[in-house]
Amino acid sequence: xxxxNQLSEFxxxxxPLSRSCLLSELERLELCGIDMPGSSEVQAKLRAEFRKDGSxxxxxxxxxxxxxxxxxxxxxxxxxxxxxxxxISRNTLTPIWEWICRDLLPTMARDYIKAINDQVAANNPKExxxxxxxFQTKVVKVLENILASPxxxxxxxxxxxxxxxxxxxxxxxxxxLHVLRAGDALRKFNDKLLxxxxxxxxxxxxxxxxxxxxxxxxxxxALPFALALLARRLKTSWQLVRLxxxxxxxxxAADVAATPYACVVPMVLDRLxxxxxxxxxxxxxxxxLVARDLLAEIYDTEYAxxxxxxxxxxxxxxxxxxHLMDAIAALVSAEVSRFPSNVxxxxxxxxxxxxxxxxxxxxxxxxxxxxxxxxxAAAFRKLIGQS
Length: 387
Known about the structure:
The chain is mainly alpha-helical and 387 residues long.
């Protein structure tokens, strides 16, 4: 009881912003697989203070929420420590916001928070957006100056490290800068997309590619974010690879890597890694049905990549894919081994690998037949051209 009281006293000595930051950091460490004794009790106390709904995911306070509004569609829950091109970890927003308020622009941040709170209280949404936009512009200008020099960037990295141990937080600052600079263009690109792209066929690929080409000319650094917005509209995110495989000279990994949008392949692998992390959390919390659905998506993505890219195993992409699948297999094996060998486990079902079913095998043969026809047609056109 004495330890609990000491803990409560310590937490109350922290500012509300620091307590919120501490909560995000503890959740990030937990999602990364780092167990800390007593962490659950601290998280429960802090969630009771900051999240009346008991949510286990960070949600920004009003001033920061309006500031980060342009990146809302690009946020990813959890705490992946890989690059995750085009997306930003929600858990890094609290430490980044605290860094902005305490170190980057403390006076302007205080003025902004007061102005936002006043306009929210006055129920004036147009002014709220205007105030937020003005502060975003100020932050962009300061970040551009700081990140322009190695010394400035290193100082910013060092300051930010005081609020979080996340290796990706500094990268997320650069991402936020790119998104804020390309905010209008990203909104226009997103508005042109279909609400749901159920079938990413050749016509859709050609249309989207043209839109991406135009976007890339004006905002090359923001391209990953446009691709992330597109991925949200696809039925399955692995369909992104069609932007690289469709225009490739052949299905070989080398030819796919030579296409303008080859970056979508590591983006799909990033999402596969996200599913690995989510699978680990689901298994830790005994959410077996959630784990089953995640595993089915993982197997489908693995199969789609191997079918659409020849020689994948010998490429850097294939090596990373194999490492991911080995880690996933270890998680599944550890879960299945908890039960007697004569008891079937849902995660061991062959049905999770849809390509092992009769329908999946027929689809594979159909793809191979289509590829053979397309390759033959390409060879014929090349022969006619030479003659």
